[in-house]
Batch of 2 targets.
Target 1
Amino acid sequence: MSKPSHTILIAEDADRTRIAVPKSLRAAGYRVIAAADGQAALDSFQSAPDAIHLVVLDVLMPRLSG
């Protein structure tokens, strides 16, 4: 059985969560992009909007709120 090949963007300012969630998702076979603030998440999404299949977005973040 093949593993999923979707890309997930994680936007989270809490270091522990931003490290733990992608680690679990990568172990399940997903590609993960992690961003520490809203602006970095927006920049990542705008650079490749068709390549990102799901965004997990923290609401209260520095620089640009989710």
Target 2
Amino acid sequence: MPTLDGALQLLQDHGLLLLFPLATVEGPIITVLAAYLARLGHLNLALIYVIVVAADLFGDGIVYWIGRLGHGSIPERWRSRLGLDRQRQAALEEHFHASGGRTLIIGKLTHAAGLFVLFAAGSARMPFGRFMLYNAIGTLPKSLFFLILGYTLGAAYTSINSWIFRASLLIGALIFLGGLLWLVRRRAKRT
């Protein structure tokens, strides 16, 4: 990934042609940069929205398929070391069958847990159409938020990138601590 200034220059020089691949790799800040360029009159705001949503869904689909295709390719001894036994896999599949939509939307909106949730949905063999539907429900407002942020405050893209990183880190830490607390309570109930 180029620097922020480099990405801004690439988008300014090549316009929408490079937006899709850049947004597939790093959607939020690229959306901010592209919307900032739209405000300056270099790009079309509506086309930016369509492209970043498509790029986000495309990238999420790749992660889903890696999870789905990798499901059976991990050797049994590695799976047991990672705690991925058949019982846990069945529980994961049941979770995504019962509440996969909600999990996907939360994963998309928190940004920090998104990659793991997408991979887990694929591993749980959530139907792809259902996966894409709920993923789109989470992607549309998230992309719109970053589009508005970039259009209104895009000149501060370095600070915005820093805040995106900090917020993701904080949310990730809270998710980790919540999971850790859940595990401690679960083990305490067993004893």
